[in-house]
UniProtKB/TrEMBL annotation:
Its EC number is 4.3.99.3. Gene3D superfamilies: Aldolase class I (3.20.20.70). Keywords: 4Fe-4S, Iron, Iron-sulfur, Lyase, Magnesium, Metal-binding, Queuosine biosynthesis, S-adenosyl-L-methionine. It comes from Novosphingobium colocasiae. This is 7-carboxy-7-deazaguanine synthase. The gene is queE. S-adenosyl-L-methionine binds at W43, C44, D45, G96, S142, P143, K144. The lineage of its organism: Bacteria, Pseudomonadati, Pseudomonadota, Alphaproteobacteria, Sphingomonadales. Residues 24-240 form the Radical SAM core domain.
């Protein structure tokens, strides 16, 4: 069984859209969003995947969500059928933290009736399941910096960062809120030998105005450091909404 997020009660968050972030930005993609996460980012825009009633970890919205209406469990073959019914042959598995459900994801991908290019979006703390790893074409690794509110010993696991840096399928995407974050990224890149051509920075924000405001200075900083910049295309197009 896979545990998925929902768009509305009882409806799993499986949809077709344009990839909004990272190296595949703008590509037509099929998305499946899983529920549950092992971290708790204070600015997370998908808190409905983990901040259920009774979870008091800090979040800017200070909202909690009923698990029963925001989470649904489905058999892997049923998820595969729903994915295949949509058009794009690029599959983006997101969350939450998808790698918490690695074995079930491997079964789901094996059940797909046609070939997909498979991307996994991960916070970088969980190793891929041995059955899943050979099936993945691209990892979008988004380590969480100090401003996320997560303890560093949970969010920045040295052996995992080193392993991702050595995996040519892995691209790093760092969420940036202030210029101070750029120095933290630079230190991580140096410590773990992250290749600059696989290092993306992205402004933190859940509305177009915030993204544009941060993007102005972040673009210049990115250029100066020789990294890559990514926007949040889906926010500009659809706003901060589920299923987009």
């Amino acid at each position: 069984m896979l545990t998925l997020a929902t768009t509305t009660p009882g409806e799993p968050e499986i949809f077709a859209s344009l990839q909004g972030e990272g190296p595949s930005i703008g590509r037509p993609s099929t998305f499946v969003r899983l529920s549950r996460c092992n971290l708790a980012c204070r600015w997370c825009d998908t808190a409905y995947t983990w901040r259920f009633t009774g979870d008091n970890r800090p979040h800017v919205d200070d909202l909690s969500f009923e698990r029963g209406t925001n989470q649904i469990a489905l058999d892997e073959p049923e998820v595969a059928v729903r994915i295949a019914a949509l058009g794009p042959d690029r599959l983006v598995i997101t969350g939450g933290e998808p790698l918490l459900q690695g074995a079930a994801l491997a079964r789901m991908i094996a059940a797909l009736p046609r070939a997909f290019h498979v991307e996994v979006e991960t916070n970088g703390t969980v190793p891929p399941h041995p059955a899943l790893d050979p099936l993945i074409h691209q990892y979008n690794v988004s380590p969480k910096l100090a401003h996320s509110g997560n303890p560093a010993d949970l969010a920045l696991v040295p052996e995992r960062l080193a392993a991702w840096a050595q995996d040519r399928r892995a691209f790093f995407k760092f969420v940036v809120a202030t210029p101070v974050d750029m120095d933290e990224i630079a230190a991580l890149a140096k410590a773990h030998a992250i290749a600059p051509e696989r290092l993306y920075v992205m402004p933190e924000g859940r509305d177009p105005a915030a993204l544009v405001d941060r993007g102005r200075w972040l673009a210049a900083e990115t250029l100066a450091r020789g990294w890559r910049y990514t926007d949040r295309l889906h926010i500009h197009l659809y706003g901060d909404t589920r299923g987009t």
